[in-house]
Amino acid sequence: MDRFDAMRAFARVVETGSFTQAAQTLHMSRTTVTQLVQQLEARLRVRLLNRTTRQVNVTADGAAYYERVIRLLADLDDAETSLSTFAANPRGRLRVDVPSPLARLIIVPALHDFHARWPDIQLDLGASDRHVDLIDENVDCVIRGGAITDPSLVARHIGDLQAGLYAAPAYLEKHGTPVHPSELEAEPHQIIGYLRKHGGRLLHVTLQRGTERLTVQGRHTFAMDDGNTYMAAGLAGLGAIWLPDYMADAHVQRGELVRLFPDWTLDAMPLNLAFPPNRHVSAKLRVFIDWVVELMDRHVPVRRPTQ
Asked: Record's family (predicted)?
């Protein structure tokens, strides 16, 4: 038994939940994958998987072993791809987590270009607004809006999100169009709250017009912690919402959202890519970072200081 082949087979069965699907992705027969996992269990003297005629479930021991295995396989892959013979053609599995709206509107539509450039990279894309522990979850990098405050991560500023306050026509017909941001603090107006991931605190926005600067908290009945859900609530007319312009533009063009207070500006939100400092920046991660920087420069470029 090749121990690394057995580990790869076991990890893929866990990830796909099926010996058949694991065999297909590994370009092996189902019998070979089954035998490799059985041999691994025999060597370890522990059951890693519970099998039934309908499904495969990982055991508690198997789950703990899987976390170790994927880190070991990732390190092995990084060691191989760091060699000059592989650097020109990076390959292997890359795990990335990004905000769901950014994934839906910018990254996913461009993935055909990434695959055309780097066809041997398998990209596992997590799309969420939740806090991701890169070490515990074995994620290579994350993209997040706002400052990266975790000192254990290396962060790179890759864009700036220009934003505004928006409301659906149905909301404005019912409550009227506010002419000053302070009106959002009183009846009949409502905002939709956006919950920060840490502590569930509401996100407050600051607007500026000339020398006038105002932080808006607003009254709210509804609050969400996911960008796509938050925008859906705004489109449904449940309240005014703060949105990056890249999320709002198409809806404004279709008449589904109206920008409020166009003579006021909001501070741009920095967009950062972060990865653990103790993780080797493999060839596949390096080319992904370069590709993302290029992509963000087209959609949400970094604001350069005015001279």
From this structure: Belongs to the LysR transcriptional regulatory family.
